[in-house]
Amino acid sequence: MKRALIFGLIGCAGCIMLALNASGAGGPKPEPPPKATTIAELAERYDSSRCADCHEEIYDEWEESLHARSVLGSPRTAPTIITTIEKGLKLFPYSGVKSDDDITVEHLMLCAKCHLPQLDEATDDVAREIVATIRGWQQAYRDGDDDKAEELEETIESLNIGCMVCHNKIALIHKYADGYPQPDTVYGGQEGDHDDDEYSLMAEAPAIGESIFCGQCHGQGPNFELEHPSQCATAYGSYLFAYVAHGGSESCQECHMYKSELGHNMQSYRDDSMIEMALDVKVESQSLFWRKNKEEGVVPIGVIDVSMYNKSGHAIPDG
Ligand code: HEC
Ligand code: HEC
Ligand code: HEC
Ligand code: HEC
Ligand code: HEC
């Protein structure tokens, strides 16, 4: 017992040291940027197209991923946001939402916490503009107005988890130790000068190669810090408590970026290489004749034995 306690204490001290020693080139908390007042302004601030000039391959990969359309989704996400408003916010007695005019950033954070974290840099008008745009897009589809539907779909897609969301906004997790992301720096695995005009420095994000980085959005369960906790993705919880706890040692990045060879095109079952990595399926079958009962006599039957082994790092499917 005593020994367990001592080991416990040593373990704990180790954790604290780790946290203190970790270093990145974050800095003091910067002044928050001025609030974006339109979708266009917010999209411009996080526009990834400039990065494509020099990181073309990564850009092309990213563009294929659902991160590049994280509000539109497959496209199931945008309609589900509307369902959240109609069947949730407008029916809850204390949400303060009776019509679309009452919607604020705080309300949309139920989803935007992970689907569009940069929404916290926008005014409530932008929250309402997003809802109006999704409704307009749905209406254009119903009206068969393809041009308008396409135009509005582009506007919805302009809001996404782009390069600077991961490589700046949420790049540093332990801010007391590593500091806050600075407005002129891209965070990755290297330090030094960076050729981009606006982000002229590169610095290290200590956890960007670790599963915890993806865990910021891939969910552990209810989001208790919200006024009204929502729950969507739970893959990170499953990864920690079902995979790592049973000896699993690979990271999200190892499977989804490197072994899959998909890089920034992080995918699931829509991609063949992920399907192959997902399951071992073993099927054994036999046919025989079986005497069932007096009335039906001997009947032919088949016995099929299917065993499936989940090789991924979490429960599937998720969300
Ligand atoms: C904890 C972060 C988080 C929150 C909060 C969250 N989501 Fe998600 N959501 C995800 C992630 C990550 C995925 C994709 C991975 C998965 O399915 O596990 C996803 C997937 C989805 C999908 C399926 C995606 C598709 O393209 O078909 C829909 C629909 C969706 N979310 C809607 C919502 C809505 C609506 C809300 C708000 C009520 C919400 N989510 C809140 C993280 C979140
Ligand atoms: C969802 C989060 C996410 C998004 C979005 C994202 N990255 Fe990354 N990026 C990562 C992670 C994770 C790594 C790998 C870190 C590691 O393994 O150490 C990485 C690595 C990199 C690297 C260094 C490694 C390499 O492959 O050369 C570059 C450069 C990079 N990203 C640029 C970009 C650009 C440009 C975009 C936008 C087109 C982008 N990233 C979008 C998470 C992201
Ligand atoms: C003018 C060219 C240029 C532009 C534009 C540019 N980069 Fe880079 N970036 C580079 C070069 C060169 C490196 C160093 C690459 C190397 O050594 O592998 C780099 C490195 C990086 C790294 C660190 C990679 C690592 O190994 O950890 C990240 C992250 C990154 N860029 C993200 C971005 C993002 C996000 C944008 C858009 C805002 C962007 N870059 C725009 C040229 C550019
Ligand atoms: C800023 C939040 C955020 C971060 C960080 C993030 N993701 Fe995601 N990811 C999402 C959301 C949101 C979706 C779903 C978008 C949609 O379809 O609506 C998603 C989708 C995915 C999907 C596709 C799921 C599907 O149903 O096809 C995979 C795979 C994935 N992410 C893996 C990763 C990995 C691996 C990392 C870390 C390297 C990571 N993500 C980091 C938010 C994030
Ligand atoms: C051992 C390899 C492995 C690890 C580790 C791993 N994944 Fe996966 N993941 C897979 C495979 C294979 C699939 C495809 C199976 C599928 O989509 O049904 C998948 C599917 C997914 C999906 C889609 C789930 C769905 O609805 O089908 C998401 C999201 C995801 N992974 C995110 C993550 C995140 C985030 C981490 C780290 C916390 C992670 N993965 C760790 C192999 C892995």
Number of strands: 5
Q: List low-confidence stretches.
A: 1-23
Structural class: alpha+beta
Sheet of most strands: 3 strands, mixed
The strand order across the widest sheet is 1-3-2
Distance between the termini: 41 Å
Mean pLDDT: 92
* SSE string: HHHHHHHHHEEEHHHHEE
> What is the rounded Rg?
24 Å
Tally of DSSP helical segments: 13
Which ligands, by name, code or SMILES, are bound?
Answer: heme C
Instruction: Identify the overall geometry.
Output: globular
Q: Tell me the strand percentage band.
A: 5-15%
Helical residue percent band: 40-55%
What does this molecule look like?
It is a single chain. 42% of the residues lie in helices and 12% in strands. It is α+β, with helices and mostly antiparallel strands and 319 residues long. It has a domain at 20-208. The strands form two sheets. Strands 1-3-2 form a three-stranded mixed β-sheet. It has a two-stranded antiparallel ribbon with strand order 4-5. Helix 4 (77-89) packs across helix 6 and helix 6 runs antiparallel to helix 7. The longest helix is centred in the N-terminal third of the chain and has 20 residues, at 2-21. The chain is globular and about 85 Å long. The two termini are 41 Å apart. The structure holds heme C (5 copies). Residues 66, 73-74, 76-77, 80-81, 84, 110-111, 113-115, 217-219, 223, 230, 232-233, 235, 318-319 line the site of one heme C.
